[in-house]
């Protein structure tokens, strides 16, 4: 064995070929499972895409670096499932570009946060976490309630998402700025367009508590309230998830 190695080290071409052969074993282990990926990822026929307002909220989540303290991926470990709910399924991240699974939890996992708290709770918490959780080390994001949400670039954001495979229609892209307004103003005429394009279950309300203005707080809370709720596939028995 060592004799073979000793001789090989003296033949540069032979050594290079052996290095390539040995290194490719690791690659094979990474690539081979991808050939069966269609059996691994569950089907979720009723899954909807993010609305323009939720997508804007997602962009704010990325801008503010929330992912540095919060993960969005519940592992299959028992303690995680008991604390956060059903472990995350691959299909639930289907429309996440880029994915926000995260690698560090200073704060809790947020993958199934949607519906856990009221909008008011989120607004108070984001303005100053210490007001609702006295021992919290989370920073305050008070400017979100003051900053008007930028909507003129939303169609471009939807288009970029479509380029990487999210099924936004031309109709959704053209109406993105109006839909962002409509989702946070339930009494406006623009609200109807949101439910017809994104489904009746879509949350349409003044997320920041002020229906006459569209702020970054509206967008971020709309996003937090939909986490884990784009599809109900995880709510079904695991065996049925692939059907
Ligand atoms: C420095 C780390 C840190 C950053 C950055 C951070 N958080 Fe937190 N977050 C925490 C901690 C710690 C908690 C637990 C205490 C609390 O509830 O405030 C928490 C709790 C939360 C909760 C409540 C979760 C639950 O299930 O009770 C939400 C929602 C949340 N954060 C959202 C955000 C959002 C949105 C951002 C970005 C705007 C953000 N966090 C940025 C540390 C952070």
UniProtKB/TrEMBL annotation:
List the SUPFAM superfamilies: Cytochrome c
Picking any one GO molecular function of the record gives: electron transfer activity
- Signal peptide as annotated in the record: none
Q: Which UniProt keywords apply?
A: Heme, Iron, Membrane, Metal-binding, Transmembrane, Transmembrane helix
Say which domain of life the source belongs to: Bacteria
Cytochrome c domain span: 52-228
**Which residues span the membrane?**
12-35
Fetch the NCBIfam families from UniProt.
ccoO, PRK14487.1
The protein's name is Cbb3-type cytochrome oxidase, subunit CcoO
Record the organism: Afipia carboxidovorans (strain ATCC 49405 / DSM 1227 / KCTC 32145 / OM5) (Oligotropha carboxidovorans)
């Amino acid at each position: 064995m060592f004799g073979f190695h000793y001789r090989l080290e003296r033949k540069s071409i032979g050594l290079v070929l052996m290095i390539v052969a040995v290194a490719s074993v690791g690659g094979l282990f990474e690539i081979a499972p991808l050939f069966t990926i269609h059996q691994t990822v569950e089907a979720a026929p009723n899954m909807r895409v993010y609305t323009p307002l939720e997508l804007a909220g997602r962009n704010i989540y990325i801008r503010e670096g929330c992912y540095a303290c919060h993960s969005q991926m519940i592992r299959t470990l028992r303690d995680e499932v008991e604390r956060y709910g059903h472990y995350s399924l691959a299909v639930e991240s289907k429309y996440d570009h880029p994915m926000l699974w995260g690698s560090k939890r200073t704060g809790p996992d947020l993958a199934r946060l949607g519906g856990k708290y009221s909008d008011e709770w989120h607004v108070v918490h984001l303005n100053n976490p210490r007001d609702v959780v006295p021992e919290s080390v989370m920073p305050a994001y008070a400017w979100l309630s003051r900053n008007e949400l930028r909507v003129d670039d939303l169609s471009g954001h939807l288009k970029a998402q479509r380029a990487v495979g999210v099924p936004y229609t031309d109709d959704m892209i053209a109406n993105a700025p109006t839909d962002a307004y409509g989702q946070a103003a339930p009494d406006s005429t623009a609200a109807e367009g949101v439910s017809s394009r994104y489904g009746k279950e879509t949350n349409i309300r003044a997320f920041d508590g002020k229906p006459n203005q569209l702020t970054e707080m509206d967008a971020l809370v709309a996003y937090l309230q939909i986490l884990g709720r784009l599809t109900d596939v995880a709510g079904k028995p695991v065996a049925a998830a692939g059907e």
